[in-house]
Recover the amino acids of this structure.
């Protein structure tokens, strides 16, 4: 089961995803301190929790760790959407409602994604009644 990230977890993961490199607790702390007052131990605990939950991996560097994301934000978002959709008792209705909430830009992104998936699919679907 994929659970949404908490506010501080999301703030940490946003930095890890944006920087796209191994990071230390100190680096994340210093960046977070530009927005809020926060303790080193709080950031260390959050990053350890994210490691325990499988969102981060870490390697020892001296007496500290360097953390990096296990997957990207797109994969996280997709997992949340899939989880929400799988809980529906009427998946088709859930999709219709979801598509109805989309902006024009989001619908265009959806069309692009469908084209990409179709291009990656089997070349011959003539004998497949599901297509």
């Amino acid at each position: 089961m994929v659970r949404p990230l908490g506010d501080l977890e999301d703030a940490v993961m946003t930095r890890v995803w944006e920087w796209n490199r191994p990071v230390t607790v100190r680096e994340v702390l210093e960046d977070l301190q530009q927005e809020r007052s926060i303790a080193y131990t709080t950031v260390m605990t959050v990053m350890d929790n994210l490691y325990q939950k499988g969102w981060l991996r870490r390697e020892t560097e001296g007496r500290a760790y360097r953390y990096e994301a296990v997957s990207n934000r797109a994969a996280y978002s997709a997992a949340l959407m899939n989880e929400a959709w799988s809980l529906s008792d009427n998946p088709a209705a859930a999709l219709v409602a979801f598509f109805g909430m989309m902006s024009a830009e989001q619908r265009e992104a959806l069309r692009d994604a469908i084209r990409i998936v179709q291009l990656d699919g089997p070349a011959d679907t003539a004998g497949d009644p599901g297509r």
Summary: The chain has six helices and two strands. The mean pLDDT is 90.
